[in-house]
Task: inverse folding
C-alpha cells in the first residue's frame, strides 16, 4: 500500500513553483506600499496596512525574515516587551508570560508569529532573498525600489536589477538604514547618527523618530532611530512594534 494516493511528479513540482512565484512577483510590480525589511517594525507595519485593505509587498534580503528577533540576547532566545504592547502580541497570536511587570516571549515564537501572519495574509506578498539596492523616484516623490536577487548581490555579479513600484516605500532595514542612506547619498545630505545604547530611552526614541523622510519615503524601527539620533537598544521590542504601527498610520495618512 502506497503512502500517497495523489503523488506529484517532479515536473509538476517545478511548474507549480515557477507559476505561483512568478504570479506573485508580477503582482508585486505595482503595490500600494513596499516594505523593505522583514524585521519586527516592517512586519507589523505590513500586516497593519494589509488589514486595512492595502496591497503590500515585503522584501527581505535574508533567507529567513525576522531580522534581529531570532537570537534574543547573546543567543539566549527570549525577548522582553512592555505590557503596553500585549494587544499587538495577541493580534499576532504570540504567547507571552508576565514577570516583574514585563512580558517575556520566546524569540523564535515572536519571529515566526510575525512572519506567519505576514506571509499568509492575502494582501501581502512576502519575498525573501531579495535585496533592495536603490530607490525609484518620479519627480521629487519616491515611487518604488530597485531590487535584485540576494544571491546575485552576494556574488557581486554584473546583472541588472528590477524595479518594483508603490505609492509609498518604508525603510525598515534596521541599523543600516539602507534606503535612508541611499536617499541621502543621492540628495547630498547626511542624517544617520545612531546614539550610544540606552534601551529605555531608545524605546521612546524609536516611536518618536518614525516618520516620513521625503515624499513617499517612510522610516521605521532602528532605521528611524538611526535617522533621528536615537539610542541604540537591545532585546526589548515594544518600541519596534509600536514604530510599525505608527508607520502604518503615517502611510495611510499619506496615500489615503
Ligand atoms: O534589524 P531588523 O530586525 O529591523 P527593525 O524592525 O528591528 C530592530 C531590532 O531587530 C533590533 C533592536 C531591538 O531593539 O534593536 O535591532 O528595525 O530587521 C531588518 C531586516 O531588513 C533586512 C534584513 O535582512 C532584516 O531582516 N534588510 C536589510 N537591508 C536590506 C534588507 C535590503 N537592502 N534589502 C532587503 N532587506
Result:
Amino acid at each position: 500500500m502506497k503512502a500517497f494516493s495523489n503523488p506529484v511528479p517532479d515536473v509538476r513540482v517545478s511548474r507549480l513553483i515557477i507559476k505561483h512565484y512568478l504570479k506573485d512577483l508580477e503582482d508585486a510590480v505595482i503595490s500600494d506600499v513596499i516594505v523593505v525589511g522583514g524585521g519586527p517594525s516592517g512586519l507589523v507595519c505590513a500586516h497593519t496596512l494589509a488589514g486595512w485593505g492595502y496591497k503590500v509587498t515585503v522584501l527581505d534580503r535574508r533567507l529567513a525574515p525576522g531580522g534581529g528577533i531570532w537570537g534574543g540576547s547573546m543567543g539566549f532566545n527570549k525577548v522582553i516587551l512592555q505590557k503596553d504592547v500585549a494587544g499587538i502580541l495577541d493580534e499576532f497570536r504570540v504567547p507571552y508570560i508576565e514577570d516583574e511587570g514585563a512580558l517575556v516571549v520566546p524569540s523564535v515564537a515572536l519571529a515566526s508569529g510575525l512572519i506567519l501572519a505576514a506571509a499568509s495574509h492575502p494582501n501581502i506578498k512576502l519575498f525573501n532573498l531579495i535585496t533592495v539596492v536603490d530607490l525609484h523616484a518620479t519627480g521629487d516623490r519616491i515611487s518604488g525600489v530597485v531590487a535584485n536577487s540576494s544571491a546575485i548581490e552576494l556574488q557581486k555579479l554584473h546583472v541588472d536589477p528590477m524595479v518594483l513600484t508603490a505609492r509609498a516605500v518604508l525603510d525598515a532595514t534596521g541599523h543600516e538604514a539602507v534606503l535612508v542612506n541611499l536617499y541621502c547619498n543621492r540628495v547630498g545630505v547626511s542624517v544617520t547618527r545612531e546614539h550610544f545604547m540606552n534601551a529605555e530611552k531608545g524605546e521612546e526614541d524609536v516611536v518618536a523618530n518614525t516618520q516620513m523622510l521625503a515624499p513617499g519615503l517612510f522610516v521605521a524601527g532602528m532605521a528611524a532611530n538611526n535617522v533621528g539620533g536615537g539610542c541604540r537598544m537591545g532585546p526589548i521590542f515594544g518600541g519596534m512594534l509600536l514604530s510599525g504601527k505608527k508607520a502604518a498610520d503615517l502611510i495611510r495618512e499619506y496615500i489615503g
